[in-house]
Amino acid sequence: HKEIYDQPLRTLFNYYPTQRCGDSLTGWNAPCHLQDARRADTGQHMDLAGGWHQSCDLRKWITGSPYGLLGLAQLGLLRDPRWDRGQIADELRWGNRFFHRMIRPDGGLMDHVVFPVTWGERQVYTNDPPTCASYMMIAGQLMAARYLKVRDPEHSRACLDAALRIWAYMTGPDCPKTPYKPSVLPPGHGWLAGCFHAHYPGSAMERGDALYAAIRLSEATGDAKYLDRACECAEDLVKLQVGGDIETNPAAACFRIGPDNSGLIAFGFFTTFGTVFGAMGLAELAMLRPEHAGAPKWRQAVRLIAEQKCRMAERNPWGLIPSYWHSDNPGAGRPGGSGRYRYFYRFRSSNGDEIRVGPNGDIAGSALFLVRAHRLLGDPRYMAAAQRQADWILGCNPFDASTVEGVGVNQPLRYMNGGEFFPPTPQIPGGVMTGIMGDEDDNPEPFGNNCSTEYDIPAGAPLMWLLSEMASAELNRTAS
């Protein structure tokens, strides 16, 4: 049916007005956090009210909550749902109450507003976030600008201006040229910097993010210089692909961390979109600039990535794509040619902390890439593999459990974060859990009352985007 995902998308949308932070009429515990926030370094008050609570806590991470802009804008752009009477536009504006205020006078983004976890005033960390957050914010602002161009021209211009300011900073001389390593980290989050060690200027993650942001800038402004910049980023990115025969070495599709680091990128936990954006960008650029001298290399890179994802998905009965690749041997999953792969995310920091989060956002990102690979290369296997990632999230998994609240059946008990604040986040229809986690041997483990069942925007927004796009892609494929 042409509206097969209409009701799930309505439910997914519900997460955002329910998770509003600030003086809203829809937030589940509104009004809240009216005094956000004081600088963690100087104590100076800054007006940063608004936005959304990202997860089953009260935090507003700049590395995670901007995904909401992408999901909401794409829902509006791709589906233009009949039930929408201005709610999508209103939600984009509400998110930007926070996001636009997080842009410093120099054009750089501030990091996050997360601690202390209370209902009162919190701290803002004014240092630069990981590069992925800034480029994702650019893409999100430009998608919002496109959706609002006719519906709210003034706010659309504000979104475009925000994107251009951040881009100018990211490509200017004042942007740090080193990996993310802030001088002050939130309490209990000493492991955070390690999650983003592969994000730095010139790395595959950074080149992929910049590539995608440049395409969106070209689309929004009509200025060919941004598409030229995208071509430069693409040339840098394909040089970092391992390359070779995908049949004998599945790791041939992977990317090295950077020109100065031959290790393979380990995706996950807010970081996947670094190379997913890059892979999506390569596919889109090959369609936008087919005459470019680099286009054959971009097509080949896309083919390698798509073939790897499809072939590796055939190694399990659910068609699940492994999202996490490593070049090291000990404790890094299953052999895959010159690399090793995992289906489920595990990260151990230098201080011994282990972080485990479900892969829902990561596999949705892979599916978004595969939709583009299908458009470019025409292989129906790519659409089938993309579909299986949505199926996994909605219940086609070892536990027959949907990890979307209010969509599907057998949902596990949601994460109750009563240890940090009270009252804990309630049951929210449309909340997407981070998903099934894996054990030491990378096998799916039963749900517990832990982060596998925590609602999270980086899981929900890519799914909203994917379902919107799958419906549109299916209609286009059938029509053609």
Order of helices and strands: HEEHHEEHHHHHEEHHEEEEEHHH
Number of helical segments with 4 or more residues: 13
**What amount of the residues lies in strands?**
5-15%
Rg for CA atoms: 21 Å
- What global shape is seen? globular
Distance between the termini: 17 Å
Helix content: 40-55%
How many E strands?
11
Q: Which runs of at least 5 residues are low in confidence (pLDDT < 50)? A: none
Strand order of the largest sheet: 1-4-3-2
Global structural class: alpha+beta
Estimate the mean pLDDT confidence: 92
Please outline the major beta sheet.
4 strands, mixed
Short key terms for the protein model shown above:
single chain; 480 residues; alpha+beta; 4-stranded mixed sheet; 3-stranded antiparallel sheet; 13 helices; 11 strands; globular
What does this structure look like?
- There is one protein chain.
- The chain is built from 13 helices and eleven strands.
- It is of the alpha+beta class and 480 residues long.
- A hairpin with a 2-residue loop joins strand 5 and strand 6.
- Helix 4 (131-151) packs antiparallel against helix 5 (153-170), helix 9 packs across helix 10 (295-313) and helix 11 (360-377) runs antiparallel to helix 12 (380-394).
- The radius of gyration is 21 Å and the shape is globular.
